[in-house]
Write a structure and sequence with these properties.
Elements lengths: L5 H18 L17 E15 L8 E15 L12 E15 L2 E15 L2 E23 L9 E4 L6 E2 L8 E2 L10 E4 L2 E6 L1
Antiparallel strand pairs: 1-5, 1-6, 2-4, 2-5, 3-4, 5-8, 6-7, 9-10
Amino acid sequence: MSMISPARLALPSALCAVVALCLCPSSYARGEDKMEKPAYGVIHLKTTVGSFKMLEYNDDKPPEGKLEMSFSGTVLVDTTEAIKHPRGLTTKITTSGNVRNEMNYHGRRVFFGTGKIIVEGGWHALQWFGQNMEATFNGSTVFRLNGEFDKNLETGSYWYDGETKHWDWGTGGNQPTCPLQKFVVDKPKIKVNGKDTGKGH
């Protein structure tokens, strides 16, 4: 009796997910004027087994930039073919290795296999799930990460250009932004006899 790979069994679920995505109302159909280019950053991601989804900051800022990824598994891309990107960007996708375009439904595309995919321009959503993924993204988006422990009890990691810290991928839906969002809390200034000392607590 021949064995069927878990990744192949997951493909019908991916097709169903794309169909469900197509049935959902989209806020991009409003046809707003082109927006200003958002700030870009560079993030690197690596995991043995897991998934991620690229999300929009808000209705006016869907993902844009360039994603280069090697992987085994399934990639779903909601391109700009059906509904225009707010900044007028289009979606360019190239693949290499044993990566096949399994479905194209009104711009919603499903890729499956082992190899490399490059997505450039703008798109409305992108999701990957599978194994042995390494990616670099230069652009603007929010990621949602979900992972599993591998044989070394690790879930993977992500890091940014210009930063020495590596963050754990995790299992509970971490949402790293690109570019990295840093929150700085202003320290209250101390006044002595009504004069600002310029020092905080």
